[in-house]
Amino acid sequence: MTKLLEATLEHLCALVSFDTRNPPRAIGTHGIFDYVRTHLPDFDLTLTDHGTGAVSLLAIRGAPRVLFNVHLDTVPIADGWSADPFALRVAAGRASGLGACDIKGAAAALLAAAAQTHGSAAFLFSTDEEADDARCIAHFLGTARSLDAALIAEPTRGRAVLAHRGYSAVRVQFGGRAGHASDSDSEALNANALHQAVRWSVKALDYMASQADRRYDNLSGLRFNIGRIEGGIVPNVVAPGAEVQFSFRPLPFDEPDELLDALRLLAKPAPAAFEETFRGAPLPSAAKHDAARSVAASLDLPVGAAADFWSEAALFSAAGWPAIVYGPGDIAQAHAADEWVALDELSTYAENIRRIIDRG
Which helix (H) or strand (E) holds 109? Predict the structure, then answer.
């Protein structure tokens, strides 16, 4: 084991021990941020509290050209953990703990690489990635920065990902009329908001299935998920209201508004509300399609396939930055019980970060 990997694992053990679950995002400016600041002694540090647990730390040394961005928040603890999620376990070529893969392993590598180099570097740590509330990145992008590109850490198996799906979260509300369930079939069926919600859900699933032939690079079809349906009162009362929450993930260069309109028009009668609660554009933006590939080549990073998931790299790209998603770990391990990152991928990532920093 190299000294760089040893240092990375020491930092990862500490970072995993901090509870940064989001939700509830009960994250303050101390705790994990005190630890990070302590281990960046020769950096200029700007800590910003954006409210409700959204905190960012910008760390700059020298005159860097590339920004490394990594989020420190994690998802809640999934069922099925076999040990304490906040205690890092290293065995059989893996490091396991909550956030080890997504994506505190990358944060640990940044700290380790920074300590073993003297070159220019820029790190942006954030805590709002896991709950569709990109305050930290939005604030950073609203400030003037003379940097050439951004590398956003997410689990990509050590490949530079230049394209990924977009992401939209939507809430649909259906209005009905309360009444006795013994009403005539037509009255109850038409007035029941839950019936409207179920009918729309079936149509939406069929519509998404009809889009299976849409393609971009290695990606095909549209990802669609109904995550929540609620409403009604009791079985013998016609439901006066219902709500469906769903998400979908368009392909790069798809038009999300056209897809949303198609889904909205499937509802008969028209829904009481059809509200997009979060939108993340696909990566890349049209203007930065080729620029990110050039950056990956200049940094000697191997390019991987387009990704099914969404990342905050799209926010940088939409703001005009060449943006790359790059990090250790497999997205299949993210958000899972006994989440883990392979030590060889963590080591390679740390070595590449050190190399990039040394080059300035």
Answer: helix 105-115
Distance CA 358, CA 248 (A): 41
Q: C-alpha distances in angstroms, 316 versus 28, 305, 343?
A: 25, 19, 29
Nearest to 236 by CA among 177, 179, 184: 179
Count CB atoms within 10 A of the CB of residue 222: 19
Residues of the chain with pLDDT under 50: none
Nearest to 77 by CA among 343, 351, 338: 338
CA atoms within 13 A on the CB side of 20: 30
- Tell me the sheet residues that pair with 81: none
Which of 10, 129, 154, 275 is flagged as catalytic?
Answer: 129
Angle at 106 between CA 117 and CA 69, to 5 degrees: 85
Residue 129 falls in the annotated catalytic set: yes
Amino acid 289: pLDDT: 65
Alpha helix ranges (H) inside 217-337 = 256-264, 291-298, 313-318
Q: How far is CA 351 from CA 2, 293, 324, in A?
A: 10, 21, 18
